Structures are given as C-alpha cells and as structure tokens.
Amino acid sequence: MSRTLRTALLLLLTTALLAAGLAGLVLWQHDYGLREERVTVPAAGHDLPGVLATPAGKGPGPFPLVVLVHGDGEVDATHDGFYRPYWEAFARAGYASLSLDKPADWLGQTMDDRARETTDALAWAARTRPEIDAARIGLWGASQAGWVLPKVVARAPEPGVRFVIAVGTAVNWERQGEYNLRAELRAAGAGAERTAAALRTREETLALLRRGAAYEEYRASPGADRELTAERWSFISRNHTADATADLRAMRARGAVPVLLISGADDLNVDGAETEAAYRSLLAPGTLTVRRYPGASHSLLRTPLERSSWRLSLTAVFAPRALFPPGLLADQERFLRELPGGSWR
Fold this sequence. Notes:
This protein has helices at residues 3-29, 84-92, 111-128, 149-155, 173-187, 192-210, 215-220, 230-239, 245-253, 272-282, 303-306, 309-318, 328-337; strands spanning 34-43, 46-55, 63-69, 96-100, 132-142, 164-167, 259-264, 288-293. By secondary structure, the chain is of the alpha/beta class. The protein starts with a helix and ends in an 8-residue tail after the last helix.
C-alpha cells in the first residue's frame, strides 16, 4: 500500500471516529432521563397537543406536577427543546412536567383566555392521569405568563395550585413596555433627543390603544412600526391594560402558596426589581423566594450566548444545560424538593 493511500485511509478513519464521537456527545447531552408521552388536552375550546414528561426510573408515580405556561410568541410544547433541561431538573426532584402547544390562534387570546386554558390543563391532569398527584400540582411560567399565573392560582378549584415558579415576569403591561423601550435605548447608546422622540411616539401609540383605534389608523400614524401586523395590533389592543396587582392580591386569599421569582440581571424586557417589590407587598409573608442571576438575559440564557447566534446554536447542540446561568436549574430543583411535603419518594 502506498504512503499516499495509507495517509488517505488514516485521514478517513480519523474523520469517521471524530464524527462518531461528536454524534455520541450530542446523544449523551440530549439524554434527559425522562419518559415523554405525547398527549392531547382539551383546554379553553381547543384540543391542544402537548407533552407529559415523567421521571424515568422512578416507578409509576403518582408524581407531583409542574404545568408550564409559555411567554409571548408561537411556542410548541418543548419550546424547540429549550424546556427539556427544566423538565430534567424537575424530574430530579421527583416532579412530572406538562406542557402544551400554543393554539394556532394565540394572537386572538386575552390573558383571561390563557388562564382558562391553563386551568383546564390542571383539571385534565388531576382528573384523568393516575400517575399525577392531584393534590400537588403547581405552575412554571415565563415572561408574559406573569399575567396568567396569578389568575390561575386565584381561580383554580380545590385542591388548587400548590406552588408557582415565575421566570422574568412583569406586573403592569404598559410600565413593562416603557421599561423595555428605555432599556433598549440605553443599550444602543441613544442620546436624550432620540430617547425623548421614542417616548413621544410611544405615548401616541398608547393614546390610539386606549381609545380602541383600528389597525388602519395605527398604520397611518407617523410612528407606526411597519412590521407590526394587524393580528399583533389586535392582540396588543386586547391585552395592553393587563396588570397582575389584583390577581396577586387574590393569590394571598388562597393561602400560603410558595412562589419562586426568577430574573436575569441583564433583562432588558422586564424590571425585575419592580416585580420583586410588588410580589413582596402583595403576597403572603414568608411565601416568596427570589433568585436573580448575573450575566443572564430576559430568557434566562447566559447573556454572551444570547448575543452570539453561532455560540448559542453550538451550545444548544453540544451542551444544552450550559445555556443557562450557574445555579438556575439547581435552584428550581431545590425549591421543589423543599416544598411542604417534600419531593416524591
């Protein structure tokens, strides 16, 4: 065999071994130790596809359950796989997870609609799934779910919601929007004149929303966002008055519901300090645990990764648990383990 042929074969073998090693690494990194079952749940007039994930290797249950409530946007049950590290952390504490696809017409929903959808999912799990402990069901929700979670807690029939994990949630829709605008302008290095102009445009848009202006009138306004669709304008029109204050106060009337409030220190969307202050003043004393993560964004991803699309993609493939700041997943696992009654045995 010639030296050239030997070199070529060696290179081919090395490449094959490297590819096999990388494939093995990816498979290992995406093995979450979960039993995932595709389910269909009747919720708020829809039959929504979803996933019920239970801890692998821990018997048939019954397991306490975390029901996930999505943030804004079109989201499937796994959030394109983003939720699985969360489900794994919950499973380590002995908890199952239930997550549903958003309905196709989600832009037609109000926060009350979303709360009814979530309450129906709770009832479905409690009544029809023998592997679920109906007395130990709680909620995990992100971002826009902040206007859904307190409604569900306040309205859910007995035995009610036993705990809440709130991730990057706000209290008042319009104040959150102003905070987001100011934060993004600061991040972009905008000067006083540009900031003032943006705030004027915002007030003009709010005036249109407050008097129920049609989309065509908004589109004709000088500050209209040309990428904003009629469906999105309709969604904002339905929900821009959302405020969680009354529902948070109603949560308190349901008893001592433990709440874990999570935020990222680099969040440009939500003022975590304002949310924390509201939760502390409105919830029952001793029920709130707060965790704020340095170097984390609104999505609770590590900020440097979120700002680099190629680093984000590579990490999602080869080390998905490393997408999150240190302690985030472990803190949620600990919170669940330390709830009254302890974790599943």
